[in-house]
Design goal:
This protein is an alpha/beta fold and 287 residues long. It has ten helices and ten strands. The chain has a single domain, classed as NADP-dependent oxidoreductase domain (TIM Barrel), CATH 3.20.20.100. The chain has an eight-stranded parallel sheet with strand order 3-4-5-6-7-8-9-10, with helices on one face. The structure holds NADP nicotinamide-adenine-dinucleotide phosphate (NAP).
């Protein structure tokens, strides 16, 4: 596994973590979900991303079971939902997450989405209190603009804003314009989510999901992959990780997919491969 430093700390986190959206939604799959997370962890993907929202707390319960007995080996990320972002709401949400996760601390606690109801100042004050209590080690946000990140930083005092978790994949490279340069300047970690484009809110012209077999875009990825003895999915993970301030959190439940993703490391795309990919997946889509 390859590691990168979290923000300006000396804490090293795996460049590929594991997302848990869709985990814990079906009680009948509980055993299977726990087993697939253990498999992932066993293979070195010890950065686990979850949220109180996933499976209505179900995903956190699965994570709690999967990390039981190996908590110290895990870098645990979870999120408070936007609707719970009042001062008291954040404190209550964190305590409930700790209980479901069966742990006494969260490594990185994120505000899941900007909140329409609650001021950033209130939310961040509660986040600082969680750090003071030792319930949370590091604070971050998710789906935040530059403007909102600056606001959050202003209300955190001496506690650093460590991370912004944002979409980053072939069909959404928008963070390259401002968010990544901002993170590099301010020594924050970007946690890119949905590297294969499966985020639920991506429905731009049917472009959610991975380029389909048979399409020109997929042929490009396949051709580059065969040059390096890699799959198209491995090419994409490698392309995502060319951003040095970034770690990525794919979600894979299938064991073959998990192994495929781990083996996306240990080699580098050539400059001409990157240029070719970016010709077909431009930064801003031309109409
Ligand atoms: P994703 O990682 O882009 O794609 C997941 C899909 O790709 C699954 O269907 C998975 O199949 C498949 N897959 C994974 N590896 C593969 C491989 N090597 N070959 C072929 N197929 C492969 O989508 P995501 O779940 O939207 O994003 C990942 C994580 O990001 C989420 O689980 C969540 O933790 C986080 N996220 C955060 C936010 C936010 O607002 N902060 C929003 C969305 C997502 P199998 O499961 O069958 O293996």
């Amino acid at each position: 596994m390859l590691y990168r430093k979290l923000g300006n700390t000396e804490v090293r986190i795996p460049v590929i973590g594991q997302g848990t959206w869709k985990y814990g939604e079906d009680k009948k799959r509980e055993k299977e979900d726990v087993e697939s997370l253990r498999f992932v962890i066993h293979h070195g993907l010890t950065l686990i991303d979850t949220a109180e929202e996933y499976g209505n707390g179900g995903a956190e319960k699965i994570v709690g079971q999967a990390i039981d007995g190996i908590r110290d080996d895990i870098f645990l990320v979870t999120k408070v939902s936007a609707r719970n972002c009042s001062y008291q709401g954040v404190l209550r949400a964190a305590e409930a997450s700790l209980e479901r996760l069966k742990t006494n601390h969260i490594d990185l606690y994120l505000q899941h989405w900007p909140s329409q109801q609650h001021e950033v100042s209130e939310t961040m004050a509660a986040m600082v209190e969680l750090v003071r209590k030792g319930y949370v080690k590091y604070i971050g946000v998710s789906n935040f603009s530059i403007q909102l990140m600056k606001e959050a930083k202003n209300h955190l005092g001496s506690v650093p804003l460590m991370c912004n978790q944002v979409p980053y994949h072939l069909h959404d490279r928008s963070i390259e314009a401002q968010i990544i340069p901002f993170a590099e300047r301010t020594k924050m970690t970007i946690m890119g989510y949905s590297p294969f484009g499966f985020a639920p809110h991506i429905h731009i012209m049917g472009m959610n999901g991975f380029p389909k077999e048979g399409s020109i875009e997929r042929n490009i990825l396949n051709t580059i992959g065969s040059k390096h003895g890699k799959t198209a999915y491995q090419v994409v993970l490698n392309w995502v990780l060319r951003q040095r301030s970034l770690v990525t959190i794919p979600k894979a439940a299938n064991k073959e997919h998990i192994v495929d993703n781990i083996n996306a490391l240990g080699w580098e795309l050539e400059q001409e491969d990157i240029e070719q990919i970016e010709r077909y997946f431009p930064l801003f889509k031309k109409d």
